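User: What would this chain look like folded?
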Amino acid sequence: MTQAEAAAETTVGGLAVVLDPTDPANVECPFPLYRQLRTSAPVAYIEAHDFYMVSTYESCMEVLRNPATFRQWDGDEMFEAGQGPPLGRPSNWSPEVRAAMEGAYRPVSTLVNANPPRHTRYRKLATSLFSARRTAGAMDGRMHEIVHALIDWFPNSGEVDFVEAIAVPFPIRVISEILGFPAEQYPTFKRWTDSAMVAIAGGVETERLVRAAHDLAEFQRYLLEIVDKRRQEPTDDVVGHLANATVPDADGPRLLTPEETIGLGLHLLTGGAETTTNLLGSLLHRITTEPGLLDQVRADPAVVPTVIEETLRMDSPFQALFRRTTEAVTLARVDLPAGAKVLVSFGSANRDERQFDHSEEFRLGRSGGSHIAFGFGTHFCLGAPLARSEALIATQAIVDRLAGLRAKPGGQIVQHEHAFLRGLRTFDIQYDAVLPRPASAGC
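Assistant: Here's the prediction, encoded as structure tokens.
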């Protein structure tokens, strides 16, 4: 087996592993695939989709440190005509998706899939809009209030689906308030963020793509209506500032176009919700299933930030993102042509045994390199401080208030269906009693 090529299937630990990250078995559990690739093909050509998958920490960092050669790419060319997502190329849309997108805007690339100088322009704007002053710092008290209010609705004892009860509503309510949306409408916002992931990533049946297109158009109308109001009556929230923000142009500063406004707004809403939802589910699953970890967290709350970082490393919410080469380049002794499609696997890099001792084990007090769950360099996640704050506050509240907390024996644990995301869609927990809010909750 060469560095760049691998058979369509191999065996790891006695199990057959399909060398395709989008295979359903690998979506459910990608780690055997990652181990195989790190060992035998750190830069592997995935023939089924015509891209190179980068799996080692060293090679992933080489890509991330060189954005001029490895530029952002949205992965749209993976789809055949009639199968493309609503936010992909119109030439790949099915007739049904085309009809659903009639009259809708196609947001321009602003952050995740943009490159300099476009990315630089929008990154500077987004950084000012999404500063700690308006997010993690300013929302500390409200985040405590929101999560405790959600716990107040729990039955006095019994069980809940943690994802449905906390991991979904908590971050979507927080980001809604930050943006300036009415937080009580969070079920609608969650529907939009779910559809946004489908609209970006595709890979589902036509009926689901059509629903995503309709939801996308609905979000656009909603956002642009609010932006119009904020331009008439400015407010001190993110959308209020977004509505009146300017970007440099040939003729001087100008307001954002509808397409730019939608691109940034959609990114902030989905990025502020999806990553944290995935992190929260994985985090509580680790706390309730790793032997002795819940006792450690209860005995010493100061250990929670370390638990969060180790969960980010082992269960990175974003498992991978695409790049594309601008010129011929050699990566891990593999020659890539100009225009090669490259999948950077954060999830595999964060479990690389060359970078992390006992990399497949959950260990606190780990020394060595830092994980790249939030990316690296010019595209490092803007919302990382907020996600960490939400995870800390939610974990402390759940552990403090649910006596007898445990994962439900035999309960449902359903992983995310997206190939390049990792998080729980369902996670049943049990507890013996809901304790009163602590006085320090500040509610």
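The radius of gyration is 22 Å. If you want, I can go into more detail on any region.
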